[in-house]
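Notes to self after the call with IL:
- keep both proteins in one doc
- input above output, always
- annotate only the second one for now

Protein 1:
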Amino acid sequence: LNMFANGAIKRLMVSVPPQHGKSHGSTRKLPAYMFGKNPNLKMAIGCYSADLSKDFNSDIQKLIDCAEYNKIFPDTLLSGSIYDKQGIKGYSRTRDQFEIVKKKGILYSVGRGGGLTGKTIDLAVLDDLYKNYEEANSPIVREEAINFYKSVIRTRNPKQELIVFTRCRKNDLIGFIESKETVVTIKSFDDFLQYALEHKNN
């Protein structure tokens, strides 16, 4: 995730079992960290429902608002923050989206089946496009998730993509991407180092 945050990895898929902290690291802390590094970043978080995406939105806002964050990233502020001494108005701050004060940064929350028409994004984070095992086993839901990825996310041409979920079926979204593109499976940090060594000139 640190390599992703620093641009060394442009497209990353994280698939590990439940309760391994993948959402906490990938969809809560990582976006907050990346907004700190680049407060002009335009980001979208997509989930199986708009409510879950909004929950991630709220969690990221809480991180940005905390004192420890402000000490490290003082230029990344949200409207209404106690650290916004000037009290600048006109920046949105809802569970649907928030903007970084005096910067171009913005985060959109979207559920599977929702849209980003007219929105420009640099980064897309897709976390849990399937609600549960039953949805992951539904051909209709799997097709809906793939169509959301193709027609909503990919049409925005994000510079970076992060996909996070526990796999239940081989023909899920990750399986779809594997069928269309070359995907490198990394099971350990040594695997990544080996891949980087083999492709150091690419």
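Protein 2 (the one to annotate):
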Amino acid sequence: MNEYLTDIILRMNDKSDQIMEPGYNSSETISWKALREAEKVDNVNYISELIQFIDSEKDKKERDKAYFLLGHIAKNTSDINATEYLIKRVDKETDKYIVSSLLDRMSNLKKQNGIDLQPLINAIENSKWQIRQSAIQSLKNSEDRISEKALIGILSVSEDQYDLTYANATLNNMGTERAIPFLEKHLNSRKRDVKGSAKFAIESIKKRAEK
């Protein structure tokens, strides 16, 4: 793999200078600086190399950082192939923290109609809350009606205040007028976050509909 890619992945995982003591500043560490650097990478030529690396790498920490880097390249370049690959990998990973982190990458990526979102939809039903709630948020910036349908399903049956709040927040980002009746049912919730997020989602949807 490209020497730069190998180096930045190693630096993102470098914990050698993370010493907890008075005056410790995490923003000055090797890994923190490397992560901020990775967020700005926009070289599409790195995509195929990162995909090959992920497909063959056994170390999950290395794959995790490769996902982080690839996710930001996909965001910075709007590359559909990278986005589709990352979505498919949701079904391949088993570690809940890696899956959750991978799903978190998805929320910032534009997901056009035609992209297979089933791995994200499947993850919404996961019994592990870390995965389930990241999956709900991963549907942000989606144009496919299947995403809204899945979120409406949560509003219809879930009693988990966090699932409901995240579903409301995601609909705030990409929901249509179809979701309003389901959001309105939560305007009287005794949970402040559920009630507030439903209200804001309805307002955002109505503003989009007026344009």
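Annotation: Residues 40 and 72 are 7 Å apart (CA to CA). The longest helix spans residues 192-210.
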